[in-house]
C-alpha cells in the first residue's frame, strides 16, 4: 500500500489525518425498496408516496428484487463478498420525516461484505501510485423523507417523496490519509456505480452523498476520536471537509481540548464544519430484526445472473485502451473515468473504424485526441456536456474520416467543426455546400506560389541567401491565398522546388 505524505503542521509538530467515508447511493430502480412508488427526481412534494411509505396501519413491506440485484452487482464490481443470507433490521429513532418511527436497514447481517477499490493519484500514470482502499460492507436501507423549512414563516413542511427510496450504504475502512485520497476514492466509486448502472451518481440531486469520518493522530499513533460530517454532496466538498475538520481538530487538541464524538455539518459558504448533535452509539437505536420481513436468501442462479450482467469496468477498460488500442496512459484514464465518456468514445471509434480504411489503433488515437481536446474544449466553451453535444459520435467520425483521407486539411477541419457546432449539420454536407474541400491540384498551387514569390522579392532573396526560417512565411502566404484549401504536403513540396529555382 502506498503511504500518504500528507500532514497537517501544528504548533506541536506534524499530524496525520485518518479518513473513512460512508457513501449513501440511491439505487437505480423504477420503484422504492419496499413499495411500488416512483422515484423520479424533482417531482411535486408528496406525489410519489404509497401507503407503505406513509406507514399507514396494516401495510407490510415487500423487498424490491431489482434493488437487491443492483446492490449485489455493485458488490461484485468491487470484488466484495456476497452474503447469500442477509437480514433486515429496524433502526428505531423518531424524526418528523420518518413516518414509521424507524428505518429498515441492515446492521448485523448486511447483503455485501468486505471488498476493495484501487485508487491512483497520478493522472499521467494510473499504475504508478496505486493505493487500495478497503470496503467494510454494503448494506441496503430505506431513505427518510425531507423537511422543508422555507415554505412557511413559522412551520416546517414534510415531503415524503424520498421516504422508502432504496439506498446502498457503502462503508469504507479508515484507509484514507489525505483529502486527495478521499476525493480519488469517491470519484472512483462513483465511476464504478455509473458503469454498473446501480446509481446515477448525481451528487447535486442527492442521489449520492457522503458522510465523512475524520480523526487526527500523531503519525503512527493510535486512532483518535472521530467526528462524522453528514451529507456532503460533492467530491470537492468532501476534500474541503477533510482538510477543514482535520485542522479544527488539531487546533482543539493543541489548545488542551478534547475531540467529542459527534455529528457535524459542513457549511461551504463559511468554509467550516459545525456541531449538529452528539454521536449516538448503536444501542441507542434499539436495533432488532424486522419482524415483517423474512431474511434474504440468494441462490447460485441469481448470483450468476448478476455476475454475467456486469459490464467491462473502468480499470479493465483503461488497460485495454492502452494495450490494445495504443492510447497513452493519460488519455486512456481520462476516457474511462466516466461511463458516459467511455460510451461516447466507443461509439465514435466504432463508426470511425467502419468508414476509415486505417488500422484500429490509428483511428483510436485520432479519435481520442479529437474528443479530449477539440470536442471537450468546444463543449466547455458552450457550457454543454456530451449529453447535450451538438455533434454526435457519428458526425464526429465523419469529420475525422474527411481529415484522414485528405479531403480536409487541419485548418479546414477546424472550420468545418465550428460550423457543425453552430448548425448541427454533418461534415460532408458542410463541405459540399460551402466548397471547403482541400485541393491537391498542383497546377493551381504552382500558380499561387509563383504569384507569392513575385510579390515578395525581398523575402525570396533572403531565403536564398540562407535565411531558411522564411520557408514558414511562404507556406503561410500560400495557404492564406488559397483560403486554407491547399494540401499542406503538396504546398511544401512545390514550394521547396520553386524556392530552390
UniProtKB/TrEMBL annotation:
The keyword Signal does not apply. GO terms for biological process: glutaminyl-tRNAGln biosynthesis via transamidation; translation. Its EC number is 6.3.5.-. Gene3D superfamilies: 1.10.10.410, GatB domain, N-terminal subdomain. Residues 343-499 form the Asn/Gln amidotransferase domain. PROSITE patterns: GATB. It holds the Pfam family GatB_N. It comes from the Bacteria. GO terms for molecular function: ATP binding; glutaminyl-tRNA synthase (glutamine-hydrolyzing) activity; transferase activity. It catalyses: L-aspartyl-tRNA(Asn) + L-glutamine + ATP + H2O = L-asparaginyl-tRNA(Asn) + L-glutamate + ADP + phosphate + 2 H(+); L-glutamyl-tRNA(Gln) + L-glutamine + ATP + H2O = L-glutaminyl-tRNA(Gln) + L-glutamate + ADP + phosphate + H(+). InterPro entries: Asn/Gln-tRNA_amidoTrfase_suB/E (IPR017959), Asn/Gln-tRNA_Trfase_suB/E_cat (IPR006075), Asn/Gln_amidotransferase (IPR018027), Asn/Gln_tRNA_amidoTrase-B-like (IPR003789), GatB (IPR004413), GatB_C_1 (IPR042114), GatB_Yqey_C_2 (IPR023168), Gln-tRNA_amidoTrfase_suB_CS (IPR017958). Keywords: ATP-binding, Ligase, Nucleotide-binding, Protein biosynthesis, Transferase. The keyword Transferase applies. Heterotrimer of A, B and C subunits. Allows the formation of correctly charged Asn-tRNA(Asn) or Gln-tRNA(Gln) through the transamidation of misacylated Asp-tRNA(Asn) or Glu-tRNA(Gln) in organisms which lack either or both of asparaginyl-tRNA or glutaminyl-tRNA synthetases. The reaction takes place in the presence of glutamine and ATP through an activated phospho-Asp-tRNA(Asn) or phospho-Glu-tRNA(Gln). Belongs to the GatB/GatE family. GatB subfamily. This is Aspartyl/glutamyl-tRNA(Asn/Gln) amidotransferase subunit B. It comes from Sphingomonas kyeonggiensis. The lineage of its organism: Bacteria, Pseudomonadati, Pseudomonadota, Alphaproteobacteria, Sphingomonadales.
Amino acid at each position: 500500500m502506498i503511504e500518504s505524505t500528507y500532514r497537517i503542521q501544528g504548533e506541536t509538530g506534524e499530524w496525520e489525518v485518518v479518513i473513512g467515508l460512508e457513501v449513501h447511493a440511491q439505487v437505480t430502480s423504477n420503484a422504492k425498496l419496499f413499495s411500488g412508488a416512483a422515484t423520479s427526481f424533482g417531482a411535486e412534494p408528496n406525489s410519489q408516496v404509497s401507503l407503505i411509505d406513509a406507514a399507514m396501519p396494516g401495510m407490510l413491506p415487500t423487498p424490491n428484487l431489482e434493488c437487491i440485484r443492483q446492490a449485489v452487482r455493485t458488490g461484485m464490481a468491487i470484488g466484495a463478498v456476497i452474503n447469500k443470507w442477509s437480514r433486515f433490521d429496524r433502526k428505531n429513532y423518531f424524526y418528523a420525516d420518518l413516518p414509521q418511527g424507524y428505518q429498515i436497514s441492515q446492521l448485523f447481517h448486511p447483503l455485501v461484505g468486505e471488498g476493495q477499490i484501487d485508487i491512483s493519484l497520478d493522472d499521467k500514470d494510473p499504475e504508478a501510485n496505486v493505493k487500495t482502499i478497503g470496503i467494510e460492507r454494503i448494506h441496503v436501507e430505506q431513505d427518510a423523507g425531507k423537511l422543508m423549512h422555507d415554505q412557511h414563516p413559522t412551520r416546517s413542511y414534510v415531503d415524503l417523496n424520498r421516504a422508502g427510496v432504496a439506498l446502498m450504504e457503502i462503508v469504507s475502512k479508515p484507509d484514507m490519509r489525505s483529502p486527495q485520497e478521499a476525493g480519488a476514492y469517491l470519484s472512483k466509486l462513483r465511476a464504478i456505480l455509473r458503469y454498473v448502472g446501480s446509481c446515477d451518481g448525481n451528487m447535486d440531486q442527492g442521489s449520492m452523498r457522503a458522510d465523512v469520518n475524520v480523526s487526527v493522530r500523531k503519525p503512527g499513533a493510535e486512532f483518535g476520536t472521530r467526528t462524522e460530517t453528514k451529507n456532503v454532496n460533492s467530491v470537492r466538498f468532501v476534500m474541503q471537509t477533510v482538510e477543514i475538520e482535520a485542522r479544527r481538530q488539531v487546533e482543539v487538541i493543541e489548545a488542551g481540548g478534547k475531540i467529542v464524538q459527534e455529528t457535524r455539518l459542513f457549511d461551504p459558504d463559511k468554509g467550516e464544519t459545525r456541531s449538529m448533535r452528539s454521536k449516538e452509539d448503536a444501542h441507542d437505536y434499539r436495533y432488532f430484526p424486522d419482524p415483517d420481513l423474512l431474511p434474504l436468501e440468494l441462490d447460485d442462479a441469481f448470483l450468476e445472473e448478476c455476475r454475467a450482467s456486469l459490464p467491462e469496468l473502468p480499470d479493465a477498460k483503461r488497460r485495454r485502451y492502452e494495450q490494445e488500442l495504443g492510447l497513452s496512459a493519460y488519455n486512456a484514464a481520462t476516457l474511462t473515468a466516466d461511463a458516459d465518456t467511455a460510451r461516447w468514445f466507443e461509439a465514435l471509434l466504432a463508426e470511425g473504424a467502419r468508414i476509415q480504411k486505417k488500422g484500429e489503433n490509428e483511428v483510436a488515437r485520432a479519435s481520442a485526441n479529437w474528443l479530449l481536446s477539440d470536442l471537450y474544449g468546444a463543449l466547455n466553451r458552450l457550457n454543454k456536456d456530451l449529453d447535450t453535444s451538438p455533434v454526435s459520435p457519428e458526425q464526429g467520425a465523419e469529420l475525422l474520416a474527411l481529415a484522414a483521407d485528405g479531403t480536409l486539411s487541419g485548418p479546414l477541419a477546424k472550420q468545418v467543426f465550428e460550423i457543425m457546432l453552430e448548425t448541427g449539420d454533418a461534415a460532408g454536407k458542410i463541405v459540399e455546400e460551402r466548397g471547403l474541400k482541400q485541393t491537391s491540384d498542383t497546377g493551381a498551387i504552382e500558380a499561387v506560389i509563383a504569384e507569392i514569390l513575385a510579390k515578395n522579392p525581398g523575402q525570396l532573396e533572403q531565403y536564398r541567401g540562407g535565411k531558411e526560417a522564411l520557408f514558414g512565411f511562404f507556406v503561410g502566404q500560400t495557404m492564406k491565398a488559397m483560403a486554407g484549401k491547399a494540401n499542406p504536403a503538396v504546398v511544401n513540396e512545390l514550394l521547396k522546388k520553386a524556392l530552390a529555382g
